[in-house]
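Journal club side-thread
Mid-discussion, someone asked how the predicted structure for our own chain would compare to the paper's figures. Pasting it here so we can look after the session.
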Amino acid sequence: MLNLLRKDFIALKSSLWMTLLFLVVFSVAFIPKVEVSLYLVGIYTAFASLNLGTMIDIKNHNHKFLVTLPVKRKQLVQAKYIAAILYTLFGVFASYGIHTLVTFAMPELHKPEYSAIDLLAPIGIMLVLSAIYMPLFYSLSKKGAAIINVVFMIILIGLAQPTAIVMNMVKEKGISDDPMLILVLIGILLLFAASYFLTVHLFKRKDF
């Protein structure tokens, strides 16, 4: 499993500058103008990183090679889901770090203060996106996966304003003060787990 994760991050090494570019571009675009920019920067950076990681697999035909190794397809899927979680944590915490620096360096922007528990919101949204994206990625052909990547990026752009509204509501209520939000987070984890089992099922049936 560790070697499979290393494979993903070694493949991404040459494209690391693109991940950092995503982070910078989204920060510049959202931080000065959007109150809940912490959420949007984190989600966009994380999903762009996941998108990049999957496209590298497609470009290099990694799955055709990996399925010939003495590795279960279930393990290949597990590694990709763990990588999705790592991308999520990187995007959200990198966004939190940048917003913390901006709060000190540019107080005139009046960025809101966030607690650690507030980070659960963008993490949850990213897990939902991953849960929808992963079964599609593993079940589609090269051409289909490329189309899905474009569609998801368009959806993310379109959801920027609705996401901002929802995040403002979450910020006003506070996650820890609303039992319904706790249930939503549990539901997200269950959806992520269900997505994993569905993806394993689809990938085991796929021919290369």
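Post-session note: The first helix runs from residue 2 to 13.
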